[in-house]
Write a structure and sequence with these properties.
This protein has helices at residues 14-18, 25-33, 41-44, 56-59, 83-96. By secondary structure, the chain is an all-alpha fold. The protein has a domain at 11-61. The radius of gyration is 25 Å and the shape is elongated.
Length: 100
């Protein structure tokens, strides 16, 4: 982890920021063995710029007006039978719904 004294500035070049880089399988697997650092208020409370009313929910500039779970669209269907029967059943269902 890199450290910088405040005030700090982080920049990126436009041509490098546009192209997403995808992790390799080895990179993903390495993540599981790396330690995960969780920094909470208790770890930061002695820092001079950290105050309880400037972090977390109290310090957030975002106010939630409404939170809800969207309604369920429908029940899933498990197809039964051999592979060919399941494919034929799926094709028939999609054709009836004019998907294919």
């Amino acid at each position: 982890m890199s450290e910088v004294e405040t005030p700090g500035l982080i920049t990126c070049m436009k041509d490098k920021a546009v192209k997403p880089r995808y992790m390799t399988l080895n990179g993903i697997m390495e993540c599981y063995s790396k330690p995960l650092l969780v920094v909470d208020y208790e770890a930061l409370k002695d820092e001079p710029l950290i105050e309880l009313d400037t972090i977390g929910l109290k310090g957030s500039p975002t106010n939630i007006f409404k939170s809800f779970t969207p309604p369920q669209k429908g029940v899933g269907v498990m197809l039964q039978g051999t592979d060919k029967e399941k494919v034929d059943d799926l094709v028939d269902r999609l054709m009836k719904k004019h998907v294919i």
